[in-house]
Amino acid sequence: MAIVWDKATFDTMYTCTGWKWGVRNYPRVPRFHYHWFGQQGMVQAIVDRYQSVPGFNSIQDIAIIGGGFGWAGEALTQLGKNVVTVDTSDYILNNKDTSEEVELRAALAETGFDPDNLPVMIGPDYNTPVDPWSYWLRPDGKRTSVNILGEDLSTTASRRNVRQALGNKVDVIVTEYAIDSMDAGDDAASLTLVERCEQLRPNPSCTVVHIIEPNPSDVVLNVKTAEEWRTLLDANGYTDHRIVASAGVL
Ligand SMILES: C[S@@+](CC[C@H](N)C(=O)[O-])C[C@H]1O[C@@H](n2cnc3c(N)ncnc32)[C@H](O)[C@@H]1O
């Protein structure tokens, strides 16, 4: 059965602590949800993967498939790229324009903290305490600044919507940890997504890249090595799709 990318799945897979160090005489550090501020370290790691794509500097128009709340896309926009993010998760699509404050307050209260009266020492630096609410929440009051399309790429119209969102210029199509987000052994679902990316491709000079993160101890996600993905893609005719992982580009 395919993984459902609901809130519980995101919060389990992307759990992060509210701050770094415990504070004496206070409850333990709470766990936060799939949270914009808490995920910034991961976002930087993803941007590093994008930067390892051959010819990255001359790439301008990027379609990100499976981009979650689009935080990596947002970072790429800040690097001057034109980005559209696609995701099919109802959790992402229904919450992208809402504030994270309610979830943060709930996590704090659940652990025993008063969200309106937090200890000053939980700032990023013990020596210069800052009110964490000033950096936990985005200034725009939303979860993302990125345009997220709920397109599944299964039809001509769906793919046309994605291309049009990029002004009909697509330099690169990137699955962002999406093809390795299937149940173990579910090659058919992964290959369906790969094929939809191929169909989205406006011409052969548009590069298709699959960012993955092999992890031998993960029995649900990330189950194939980069070499195994390469073999699977080659066997199915996707010889010019690139695999990008922490180990490099295949
Ligand atoms: C492992 S998460 C990665 C999220 C984001 N790229 C990140 O790294 O934070 C996989 C994402 O792929 C999305 N996804 C899975 N299958 C998809 C599909 N067929 N089309 C679009 N998005 C898909 C899921 O909804 C989920 O948001």
In words, what does this structure look like?
The chain is of the alpha/beta class and 250 residues long. It has two domains: 1-35 and 101-136, no CATH class; 44-98 and 143-249, Vaccinia Virus protein VP39 (Rossmann fold, 3-Layer(aba) Sandwich). It has helices at 7-13, 40-51, 71-78, 90-95, 101-111, 133-136, 156-165, 187-200, 226-235, and strands at residues 16-17, 31-32, 61-65, 82-86, 148-149, 172-176, 207-211, 242-245, 248-249. Strands 5-4-3-6-7-8-9 form a seven-stranded mixed β-sheet, sandwiched between helices. A two-stranded antiparallel sheet has the order 1-2. Helix 2 crosses helix 3. The longest helix has 14 residues, at 187-200. Bound molecules: S-adenosylmethionine. S-adenosylmethionine (SAM) binds next to loops. Residues 5, 46, 65-68, 86-89, 92, 152, 176-178, 181, 193 line the site of S-adenosylmethionine.
Please sum up the structure shown.
This protein is α/β, with parallel strands linked by helices.
